[in-house]
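Below is a filled-in request sheet from our internal design queue. Each sheet records the structural input a requester submitted and the sequence that came back. We keep these sheets so that new team members can see what a complete request looks like end to end.

REQUESTER: design group, bay 2
PRIORITY: normal
MODE: inverse folding
CHAIN LENGTH: 100
BACKBONE (tokenized):
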């Protein structure tokens, strides 16, 4: 039978910790990162704007797009991809960005 001295146990423990850390690192680096997306329903925003203000001008359209861009800027800075709702077939409700 092999006798484990305190030094041998310490070396064995260190090897176990290092191999576990190395295995965890490789598992994490090889795992795919899920895509982060957010969906903006621009058509619904335009319909809502037309219903509330019948006289739409080009300036109003530019203001609406500026509002959309400013609302999604923080998401873009975090690396989130922004899609228009018209190009999405199916998505969970949490993916939709609410722009007031």
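RETURNED SEQUENCE:
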């Amino acid at each position: 039978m092999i006798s484990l001295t305190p030094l041998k146990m310490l070396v064995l423990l260190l090897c176990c910790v290092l191999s576990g850390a190395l295995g965890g690192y490789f598992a994490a680096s090889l795992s795919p990162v899920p895509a982060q997306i957010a969906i903006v329903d621009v058509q619904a925003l335009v319909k809502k704007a037309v219903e509330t203000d019948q006289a739409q001008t080009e300036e109003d359209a530019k203001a609406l797009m500026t509002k959309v861009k400013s609302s999604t800027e923080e998401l873009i800075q975090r690396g989130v991809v922004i899609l228009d709702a018209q190009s999405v077939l199916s998505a969970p409700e949490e993916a939709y960005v609410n722009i007031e």
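SHEET NOTES:
- The two ends are 74 Å apart (CA to CA).
- Strands lie at 37-40, 81-84.
FILED BY: M.R.
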